[in-house]
Write a structure and sequence with these properties.
337 residues, alpha/beta, 13 helices, five-stranded parallel sheet, globular, two-stranded antiparallel ribbon, 10% strand
Length: 337
């Protein structure tokens, strides 16, 4: 009988049953990788080199998906512009990656569940403790954050067939929401529930089926790019500066002061004083310094324009500053100086 390291079959795995009961080939992530069949015989340096060599293929897989990822960003912009939200639905490692991406938008761009919300199979406790049985359930019908017709729902599942994600997409479609699927399988059954299909073709994993590896890295890269592009496209940056987050600790305060001195051409002392007057709200201080508005007026302009600094500045400035694209307006206001 062969040992595990002597078994070298890399043939596609036999079909499995989908939630609907039909049969289809298993996803690429469940195939055995021909280069890692001797994994358990390698010394530590060779083992790490093999993993690293495979990791190096991930960026190219994400690059190949950029046209569809761009479509997804544009769909998200449309959702936000019509007053909707973006939702991530995921389970296991992919769900936790999606949750982390959503949570990081708060300290970076000052947005929360009112803009982008993540739903994880098993609920919040599954973020710190795996809840595998929850992957086979559907989303909570009583969830107060469930999607509406104006929203965009993105399912995140490497296999493209996780029941929790597929049922979330089907339910979202029934409400009229736009839907998308982020998967490692070009033949994912979940594509039937998605208006947009984004395939991150990372192939078999070094450890068969361990999608926290290449597939997870690809999900991280893709979601980072997606959410960052979405924040830029919706005016949450000023040039390449983070201006929408509040200065809630020492590091963020130092960054906010640097941002204000650069974008508004004021001294560090002036920036710090204005930041204090604006209750540590970097975007409010930027709008106030750029336009001469009071903190209250700057804050009101931001509220009227859904927290978008450029839109608030444009609304508060006179005709000479209204013309042109965001880069031109930022340049006139001193951004990037």
């Amino acid at each position: 009988m062969p040992t595990p390291s002597e078994t070298t079959s890399s043939e596609p795995a036999p079909p499995e049953a989908t939630p609907s009961g039909t049969r289809c080939p298993r996803p690429p992530t469940e195939h055995r990788h021909p280069l890692s069949t001797g994994l358990d015989t390698l010394d530590t340096p060779a083992l790490l080199e093999l993993i690293n060599d495979q990791d190096a293929t991930v960026a190219a897989a994400v690059r190949a998906a950029l046209p569809r990822l761009a479509d997804l960003v544009d769909a998200a912009v449309r959702a936000l512009d019509r007053g909707g939200r973006v939702h991530y639905y995921g389970a296991g490692a992919g769900g936790r990656i999606a949750l982390g991406d959503a949570l990081e938008l708060g300290p970076t761009y000052g947005v929360g569940p009112e803009t982008l919300v993540a739903h994880l199979a098993g609920g919040p406790t599954a973020a710190g403790r795996a809840a595998e049985p929850a992957e086979d359930t559907g989303p909570d019908a009583a969830d107060p954050d469930r999607p509406g017709a104006d929203d965009l729902v993105i399912g995140v599942t490497a296999s493209g067939r996780t029941p929790y994600v597929l049922r979330a997409l089907a339910a979202a479609r029934a409400t009229g929401a736009a839907t998308a699927l982020l998967t490692a399988d070009p033949d994912a059954p979940g594509a039937a529930h998605a208006d947009l299909l984004v395939v991150l073709a990372t192939g078999p994993e070094v450890v068969t089926g361990s999608t926290r590896m290449k597939a997870g890295t690809a999900q991280k890269l893709a979601l980072n790019a997606f959410s960052t592009a979405l924040m830029v496209r919706t005016g949450r940056t000023w040039s390449n500066l983070m201006v929408a987050a509040s200065a809630r600790n020492g590091k963020l305060r130092e960054r906010a002061v640097r941002t204000l001195t650069t974008s508004c051409r004021v001294t560090a002392e002036e920036a710090a004083a204005c930041l204090d007057t604006c209750a540590g709200e970097t975007a409010t201080a930027l709008v106030a310094l750029t336009t001469g508005a009071t903190p209250a007026r700057a804050r009101a302009a931001l509220a009227a324009h859904r927290g978008r600094p450029f839109a608030a500045v444009r609304a508060l400035t006179t005709g000479a500053l209204i013309e042109g694209d965001p880069a031109a307006v930022a340049a006139r206001a001193g951004a990037g100086g």
